[in-house]
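Hey, I'm writing a tutorial for new members on how sequence and structure tokens pair up, and I'd like a real worked example in the thread rather than a made-up one. If someone can provide the structure for the chain below, I'll link this post from the tutorial.
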Amino acid sequence: MGTTETTQNSRRGEKIAILLIMTAIIVLFAVFWKSIMFPLIRLELQHDLAGAQRLLSEKGAEGALSVVLIEALQMLVVFIPAEFIQISSALSYPIYVSIPLCDLGVCVGASIIFLLVRRLGLSFTSFEKRRGKIEKLSSELHERNTVMLLYLLFFMPFIPFGAICYYGAGTKLPFRKYILTVATGVLPSVIVSNLMGAAGTVFLVNDLPLWQLILVILTLAVLLFALILVFIRHFVFRGSEGTPDSMMYSLIFFLVRLWLGRKERVEIDDALLREVAPPYILLANHESFEDFYYISQMAHPRNPSYLVNEYYTTRPVLKPMSQRGGILSKKLFTPDMAAPLGILRMIRRGYPVIIFPEGRLSPDGRSNPIAESGAALFRRLKAALVLVRIDGAYYAHPKWRRKTFRSDIRLTVRRVLKPEELAGMTDSQLDELIRTELYNDAAAHITGRYPQKDKAVGLDRILYRCADCGALYQTEGVGNELRCRACGKRLCLDENYHFTDAPDTIGGYYDMIRRMERKELDGLSLRTEVSTKIFGANGGPVRREKGECTLDTQAFRYRSETQDFSIPVEDLPALAFSCGEEFELYHDNELHYFYPVEEPRQVARWALAVDLMAERRHAAQQERENADGKA
């Protein structure tokens, strides 16, 4: 109890201290603006340069002290930016005076922090929260010593000077080296902020257009950003090009966090992962396009590489980004030796590799059959195998819906297999274990409630056939209802994403469609006119043409003015597709996107037909193996 009371009193004292400091900053800033800034701006607007110089000479010492004190005190309150006083200082004083004043203020504040931490042993929650982030960042940097690390941190955007000084004060640096590092490390930012203020003074005095002032400020900001990027690239990420430690990798995930960071709540159970040293292979089920982002939030001891669809690594802009960021590629559902070689290369360099062995998103919330798990490769790599199940992602953003809903995402490390365990398993045993541990049924693991009013919109792009009357392409998702225009049947989704009438779930409805299609499989004969988009091999030029696709139980065929080829169904483990848009496959190392001219929803039927034929082949193979075993 005594410890708890002490902690509470310490936090209460910290809040009082911060409040007093903030009050002092506000008062000083108000005095500074009232006695110097407002009169100075008025004189400059009147082009009274002589009056402005008299004001500065009369109030110079008072204003200079205000600049130093405000700059020093703001260092102690992490969330108050220093740019305000730096720009204001440059508006009031010549830049050769303003820059030293601001730098002196930073040094005074840094000295106070050093005294509080090193001599008095005080700790502040507001600093400690950021200390963890700095330590995590420092573990990923290639710093030679503490001084270099502090320089790098001063160059990193969005890290307050006070937090960096607090971190530096907690190291073993002597005060002389500490304060010299602070004084020189903040100069680039101080100089740019003062240049912005000086630009404002010039424009006020010369009465120039506002757009020119804005242009100058933006130019200075861009120059600072460019300087930071050059510095970071050459010192922070040196020697990391083409790996997950590269600047490009960090940029990719920085942008992803901006895009997705606040959309979902992610709960992670990765206690088992914390016991694994890199490199390792992590396998996960695949429910939404954002799964890679959820995986990135796990406690990886080192940035992992991702094995992704080759499409995303060969297109303009995406190709150089993926190459520099250490992203691996795989041609979907076609032999590709580049993928295992890339995995092997990353493992040998000590990086984890993330793989979604389904190779495609789940259509109905249940895991797809895994055509090729790579069991033989995983055993030969002699790296640990981490099996992760993702729950909740399907209802956040399933492949059939364009919108993203808020959802509780849960990641669970189901199993960790060490190299010696893998060595004692056969390929078939490992395949079965992977399928079992990764399998998920979204309807059986509802992680939250979904009160949205348009949950069924787009659902007809996967539930393309009425489960009651069997009519093709007559279903329609309206609001929370799936309706059939042919027979009038209506099913409504509740807040648990279950239908209020049989079949109970999306997966159950999909099973009814599967049964219908399975009965008609022997007489299968699909045909459609298509607009074809062909991506040249290895990022080659894109071509467009018109053609015709057909599918039966023997082969997939495509014919156009320039091509005529067929692929036996035995060589089609699955057919990747985008709901209501296209289906895709490789031929001669070129990726073909087929867009049906009529009824785009039929792409889901083509993909399901290929799945059913693969399912039939697998069942026949199992029967043969069982028969051989009995013999």
